[in-house]
Design brief:
Helix content: 40-55%
CATH superfamily: Gcn5-related N-acetyltransferase (GNAT)
Largest sheet: 8 strands, mixed
Number of strands: 8
Shape: globular
Structural class: alpha+beta
CATH architecture: 3-Layer(aba) Sandwich
Strand content: 15-25%
CATH topology: Aminopeptidase
Radius of gyration: 22 Å
Number of domains: 1
Distance between the termini: 80 Å
Strand order of the largest sheet: 2-3-4-5-6-8-1-7
């Protein structure tokens, strides 16, 4: 078993320090029931290799359908990054333990479409999940990954991971500090900004679609007028 132990640096002012974020600024929003089909489309857009890294096995379309159908948006938290075309290019699943009173823990999984990689989205989603987990009272956050999943291991390593290799699997466990006013306020602000950004993209897409429809109607008439062949 490949075991990764993540430990955030401890300082005397840790309780009052702001949450750790990557330098990348990108709107990350919480996803709900109405995003289920887009999550399904995102996962099915992954090729066989990417599905293997995300799920630990070569997930078929049917298995992805069952996974998406079983997502519990009331208990767990799903985060997503949309591009300007309203395509989910990155999705993270933060699954909480069934009984948080007995075991206040969560598990993190992430996938990023090939064309959106190399931009730090996975690390950014990881930071977002850590902040939310802290605010929900999670004390231990787990990451299960294959040893071959270098992208996920790099995120863990950059977080200060100690890595021991033994076999084909990896397990990371991160001890989280209690929530602070800073983490709670930061999450509210970040979610609000992400929601606003999403609505802006929706309106921009609607305007673009409307313009395209008007253009499709206007151009043929314009063309016939120029040629002088428009029926009288």
């Amino acid at each position: 078993m490949l075991e990764i132990t993540l430990q955030r640096p401890q300082t005397s002012s840790a309780a009052n320090a702001p949450p750790h974020f990557s330098n990348l600024v990108v709107p990350i929003r919480s996803l709900g029931e109405n995003h289920r089909e887009r999550i399904r489309a995102h996962l099915k857009a992954l090729d066989a290799s990417d599905r293997y890294y995300r799920f630990g096995f070569n997930a078929s379309d049917d298995q992805i359908d069952r996974y998406v159908a079983g997502l519990d948006f009331d208990r767990d938290e799903i985060f997503g990054i949309y591009n300007r075309h309203l395509t989910l290019i990155a999705v993270a699943h933060l699954a909480f333990s069934i009984d948080m009173q007995v075991s206040p823990s969560s598990e993190f999984g992430v996938s990023v479409l090939p064309r959106a990689r190399g931009r730090g989205y996975g690390a950014r989603l990881f930071d977002r999940a850590v902040m939310h987990a802290r605010n929900q009272g999670v004390r231990t956050m787990f990451v299960h990954a294959l040893s071959e999943n270098t992208a996920m291991l790099k995120i863990a390593r950059n977080a200060g991971a100690h890595i021991e290799r033994d076999g084909a699997e990896a397990e990371a466990h991160l001890s989280l500090e209690p929530a602070t006013l800073n983490t709670q306020w930061a999450e509210i602000v970040e979610e609000h900004m992400a929601q606003s950004n999403y609505q802006f993209k929706v309106h921009a897409r609607q305007l673009q679609d409307t313009f395209s429809r008007l253009q499709a109607i206007w151009l043929p008439h314009r063309h016939t007028d120029v040629l002088g062949t428009k029926p009288r």
